[in-house]
Each structure stands twice: as structure tokens, then as C-alpha cells.
């Protein structure tokens, strides 16, 4: 693309660095901002910069937080001995939305992915293992997505916990509520049969 | 969505003001920026602010430009008496990419759209009519998209030019090169038959 303005080109270049935003979309977004009042661009720039420079991570669970200890970790109504291991804040938000979980979280900040240069040391695995060794935790629930990277990360943490007195569990995989059996993939369907539960416990939900 | 951080919420709110960016996508983009080096966020914010505060519009064609008179209007190699009327800079870039046009442009900045509160006075129609009345222009080529709003705008300008000694034309509508006739819509196919051209002239391109 040939731009008539260096300023425009620069803005499009920076915008198209974002994931899933190509140069055409970036141009559309930038031209939209140009048509809006200046206050909108100022507010967007300020919000992004403020977030980047002032963001804090909870010292206990590593979730994004405005305070030193996040609301969930600081709450007195949560089971502090149960910790759910998730990838990032989006997973925390998804689980919180279910209102089914009363324990704490541990945000890893990613999954082990050698292809993208993410090793165990870039994640917050060490602090999780330390919490377990200190006897703070009774149960660790693995809730990473069941991909190659997720399974690798789960297994790595599991090995690190060898000899530590802590229960580990993983969230149930199975057919989604409301889904038709005939369209389910074989792995999921197979697992849902292997890991069947007593009928009476399904009535509780 | 319930955020654990006001800073994050603010950034997501601002990002989701952009067209086609929902709150989930906004969260994904913002979390991506959080993982990247701070320089990327600084560069993005700076580029957007610089564009908004320092952008200039060519005083002749109203296209986005870094200078008072844009490169196209200032060039000695263009036919200054032919002016192509387009909606915005993207159309200029699309036509320039064809390398088929040697005239100048006139960027309207939008189309007449009462539903969105865009009337003729918000567009640069008056300056176009003045250029025509001053005798600077021999031919005006309408190249707005053929929607209700585009046709309305074309017709409004056409009426404003009554009594002015200027030729008006509109870009050809027809079947795209490489398209199959059977899949073309009826209006386009109909027009392409009505507006057929001598076979010899098709050999020139």
C-alpha cells in the first residue's frame, strides 16, 4: 500500500502489529479514529499507556490486578486451600462467570510452547510449586486447554510436584450440555464414557 | 464482563469503541499488548495521537497529506483539468494502484447519508463546485460506490453543477474481468449490455 501521508502510514503500521489486524483493517480503524473527536484518540492512547505502565500482578496468583493482592486472593469467602491453574485472566473470568468455583486461582501467564520460545521459566510455575511445598495448598485443579501445549504444561507441573503432599485433579472433559452425541468428536465421546459419573451426582447440578 | 482491574477495563472499553472490535476481541488485543515490550504500546499511542493532531488535508483535493498541497495535486505529470470524485483516501489508493488514471482527485470525505446525519454541508461539495465554476475543471468523473447514498451524492453534485460548463462522467459498471456471467447479478449484467462498447476499444486495455 502506498500512503499519501507518513503519519497515516505510521499509524497503520503500528495498528497492524496487533494480532488478527491486517493492513486493510488497520487503515479502516485509523480512518475511523480520524473522523471521531480528538478526545477518543486521546482516551484510547491514555488507557493503553496507563495499563502498560501501571498494571500490577497479584503477588499470590499473578492475575492482573490494581492492588498488590487481587480481590479473589484477598477475599475471606474463598477456599484458600484449593487452587485452580489457568493460562490467563480470560480463563479466570470464564470460570468466575459460572459461579461454581469458590477456591483461588494461579495464573501461569501462558503454556509451555518451545515453538514460540516459551519455556517453564517464563511462566509462574516455580511460585506455584513453592506454594504447594509450603503446605498452603491441598488441591491443585488443572484447567488448561487440552492441547499439546496445555497437556505438556500440566504434565511438567505434575512432575515438579512429585513428593509434595498435594492432591491434583483436572477439569472434566466430556460432551457439552445440549450437544448431540452424533456430532461429538471421538476423543471427547470416548473420554466421556470412560469417565462416567454416578447418575445421582449428575442430578446435583 | 467483570474485570479484576479498572485499568484493564478502561483499555478494553476504549479499544471496543473501534468499529468491528467487540469486547472479547478488545480484551485479546489489550492482553497481547500487555505481553509485548512497552515500546510497542508507546509507538502505537504516539502514532495515533500524532496522526490525529498533526494530520493535514490537501487544500485542493482534501486528501490526507503531510503537506499543504498533496503529492498528486502538486505533480506536474497529472492532467489538472480532469477530476475524479471519490469518498475517501482508500478509493484514491485503489485507483492509483491501477496506474490507469492521470488526472486529479477530489475527496468528499463521505457520502450524503441522512440516516447517519451526514448532509451536503459536511462534505467538500462546495469547494468542488467552486473549482468547476472557476473553469479549472473540464471533466468530473463520479467514482462513488453505486449504493443509495452514492447515487444520491452523485445526483446532488450533478444538480449543483447545472449551468456550469463542465463535462460529467461516471465510471463503467459491468461484469468484473474473470467473472462468470451466470453468477453476475441482474442489474450489473443488464447495465453491462446497455452500456456495451465497440469491440476494438476493448482490445486497447
Task: Give the arrangement of secondary structure elements.
The structure is a homodimer of 205-residue chains.
Chain A: H1 6-15, H2 23-35, H3 38-54, E1 56-57, E2 64-65, H4 71-74, E3 79-86, H5 89-98, E4 103-107, H6 125-133, E5 139-142, H7 148-160, E6 167-170, H8 186-194, H9 199-202
Parallel strand pairs in A: 3-4, 3-5, 5-6
Antiparallel strand pairs in A: 1-2
Helix pairs in contact in A: 1-2
Provide a quick synopsis of the model.
Chain A has helices spanning 6-15, 23-35, 38-54, 71-74, 89-98, 125-133, 148-160, 186-194, 199-202; strands spanning 56-57, 64-65, 79-86, 103-107, 139-142, 167-170. Chain A has 205 residues and is α/β, with parallel strands linked by helices. Chain A has two domains: 6-54, RecR Domain 1 (Helicase, Ruva Protein, domain 3, Orthogonal Bundle); 64-171, Dna Topoisomerase Vi A Subunit, Chain: A, domain 2, CATH 3.40.1360.
Any overview of this molecule?
2 copies of one chain form a homodimer. The first copy, chain A, contains 9 helices and 6 strands, in the order αααββαβαβαβαβαα. Chain A is an alpha/beta fold and 205 residues long. Chain A has 2 domains: 6-54, Orthogonal Bundle (Helicase, Ruva Protein, domain 3); 64-171, Dna Topoisomerase Vi A Subunit, Chain: A, domain 2 (3-Layer(aba) Sandwich), CATH 3.40.1360. In chain A, α1 packs across α2. Chain A is globular, with a radius of gyration of 22 Å. The model of chain A has no long low-confidence stretch (mean pLDDT 91). At the A-B interface, α1, α2, α3, β2 and α5 of A face α1, α2, α3, β2 and α5 of B.
